[in-house]
Write a structure and sequence with these properties.
Helices cover 34% and strands 20% of the residues. It contains 16 helices and 19 strands. A 6-stranded parallel sheet has the order 1-11-10-9-2-4, with helices on both faces. It has a 6-stranded parallel sheet with strand order 12-15-16-17-18-19. A 3-stranded antiparallel sheet has the order 3-8-7. β5 and β6 form a beta hairpin. The longest helix has 14 residues. It starts with a strand and ends with a helix. 45% of the residues are buried.
Length: 427
């Protein structure tokens, strides 16, 4: 094929009566855990393609490399050690490919009828090694089939993505206009996924939500309920909400959804919020609704009690609001371990002492600290600050890896300090 070119989603949406394979590549990283991680954008797109009269199939290299279930539908993913990229040569950690091995991926491709197009997604910018791996194998198997690369990495690092060998790279944003993702392509999925809204009305300096979804859009309760019902019919017992702002306007969206899910599946369907909830929205009624509706996993957003760090998070939470939210959740029956609380560390200029203070504050309030290491995301204000100190971040996405950035790359934290913070969080 020729040089890679950028392509808009309108061109993809115009495809009709084609044979299309969607591919979610394996993950190459130091660590990876399946925490309700599904390529939701690709699944919505495949449903849209199917609605246009195309024949669609899915190869999810992560899911198909699963070695059994861990908890609440999440899977343990097989991995194999691989050589570290040169940029990581000084890092004393093992590097792995998580998902199917090469023989299994080649077998899946070879067993399929030659497609007209292959839609390849991408997620974290620093996971592009798995994207390149998939492109090379696809090209070897189907040398004349156009590969269209989209997803988060392609959006945030388009110039870099154009070098990986796909024929087309999707760089524009789009908003799903179908009622459900094509989860039936998994057969019986290990869990369900949904979003009640796309984007977020806040503008946190370290977050990319508004870059992915420039216009905040709230879906109808009826559409979300039908989406969940479809996945329940496929056999799922767990559903994860991917929202960045799940509880906003809760009276008009969240509460009606919870009421209907309780009516239909009370005591059967377990619900999960892997993204942090806005604690300001958790009043007495909200806590009761979450408990009665079957929310088994709750993650809370605090980030930091340091005023300097709070200012980068759109002022969405204050100490008193967090303490009150935890008290309300504990009051309806949630335990300390249920109130997992995201604490950021490794932000440009953030001190280890401020992280310690936040960890201690969460403990004192009866919550459970969950450290979230900073990853500089292209297009955000925090990324621009980080690039001033480390210009190579702009050209090498591997340097954006949250598991190594704050210690091995930026030097914001020493490995010893990081371990001290982890130990303090586990108390």
């Amino acid at each position: 094929m020729g040089m890679s070119q950028e392509i808009g989603t309108a061109k993809i949406f115009s495809l009709k009566d084609k044979n299309i394979i969607g591919v979610n590549p394996p993950v190459e990283d130091f660590a990876f855990f399946d925490l309700w991680s599904k390529p939701l954008g690709l699944l919505y797109l495949l449903e849209r393609m199917r609605g246009n009269g195309n024949h669609v199939k899915l190869i999810d290299c992560v899911h198909e490399g699963a070695a059994g279930e861990k908890s609440f539908g999440c899977e343990k993913i097989n991995s194999s050690p691989i050589e570290k990229p040169a940029v990581y040569s000084g890092i004393k950690k093992n590097y792995h490919r998580f998902g199917v091995d090469e023989a299994a991926f080649r077998a899946r491709l070879s067993s399929a009828e030659e497609p007209d197009y292959i839609l390849l997604t991408s997620i974290m910018t620093y996971w592009y090694g798995g994207v390149k791996w998939a492109i090379d194998i696809i090209r070897d198997t189907f040398p004349n089939v156009p590969i269209i690369l989209g997803g988060i990495y392609a959006r945030f690092c388009p110039e870099h993505a154009l070098t990986l060998g796909a024929d087309f790279v999707v760089t524009d944003s789009w908003q799903p206009d179908v009622s459900r993702p094509a989860m039936d392509l998994y057969g019986i999925p290990p869990y369900g996924v949904t979003m009640t809204s796309f984007g977020c009305p806040l503008s946190c300096e370290y977050c990319a939500s508004r870059l992915l979804w420039p216009i905040y859009h709230r879906r109808s309760s009826k559409e979300v309920i039908e989406e969940i019902a479809f996945q329940r019919e496929l056999g799922v017992n767990d559903v994860a909400f991917y929202d960045d702002a799940l509880l906003l306007d809760k009276e008009n969206c969240f509460y009606p959804i919870c009421a209907e899910l309780k009516r239909r599946y009370g005591g059967v369907l377990r619900l999960h919020t892997p993204n942090g909830l806005h604690v300001r929205q958790i009043d007495d009624r909200c806590a009761e609704v979450m408990k009665e509706s079957g929310f088994a996993t709750i993650r809370l957003s605090l980030e930091s009690i340091d005023p300097k760090v709070e200012a980068t998070g759109s002022g969405k939470v204050a100490r008193g609001e967090y303490a009150a939210a935890v008290k309300r959740l504990r009051g309806v029956g949630y335990g300390r371990d249920d109130c997992e609380t995201y604490i950021l560390l490794g932000l440009p200029g953030q001190s280890a002492e401020s992280v310690k203070d936040t960890i201690k504050f969460v403990h004192d309030c009866g919550g459970k600290p969950k450290l979230a290491e900073f990853s500089p995301i292209p297009g955000t204000k925090s990324f621009a600050m980080a690039v001033k100190r480390f210009p190579a971040l702009a050209s090498e996405p591997l340097l954006q890896n949250n598991s190594v950035y704050s210690t091995w790359i930026s030097g914001e934290l020493s490995p010893g300090t990081l371990q001290e913070l982890r130990d303090l969080a586990r108390v």
